[in-house]
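Summary for the funding panel

The consortium committed to producing paired sequence-structure records for every protein in the target list. Below we show the first two records in order, beginning with the earlier of the two.
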Amino acid sequence: MINVALAIQSDEFAQRRLAYVSLFLRERDGTPKRNNIAKKHSRAEQIHRAMLQVLDGERAGATQRALACALYGLRRVAENWTPHGDMLGRVRYLLKRGRSRPPRNLT
């Protein structure tokens, strides 16, 4: 087996791209196809993933608008971003929620 590294852009089409990559890897490895290509994640898992993504971006020095672009895609942010809008509120919510959780020891 050959190791493969793929990068998937985080935008509104990321889930679809991930599903196609998953299908490609299963076909390459000979794994049988499933009816649903990608596993559906629960709302809690989606929020947790977004929270970790904004915390990582903040630590890297990204602006709140840049964090929104990573979560929702450039086009969607360009069309819907306002200084006191919903997207900014969601990014701030995720940052606040992430900061309030104590770090876990994963070792």
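The next record, for a separate protein in the list, is shown here:
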Amino acid sequence: MLTVSVEVIRRDRLTPDATWKQGRKMELLDRGIRRLPEDLRTVLLMQVLGEMSSTEIGRLLQRPPGTVRYQLSVARRQLAKEIRLIDNDRDERMLPA
């Protein structure tokens, strides 16, 4: 299962290859998040970027915390699937014709 984490990237301490790989991961994550339905994207971003609990998210969105936890679970699974699809599509386009 994909675990979404937010970290500060210190590019001045990374090798060029590591910087490229980190950028690629961030690009895949961004594209995958953009493909999520709005309701799933919203709860995921509120948790990850807003560092909010399911209770806090539920209070703001007027949803039970259990519903928020379920939506977060679905969002993570769907995000992992989207990232795999994006990455596989990229790999197929790079193969010689």
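Regarding this second record: The chain is about 70% helix and 0% strand. Residues 38-97 form a domain with the Arc Repressor Mutant, subunit A fold (CATH 1.10.10.10).
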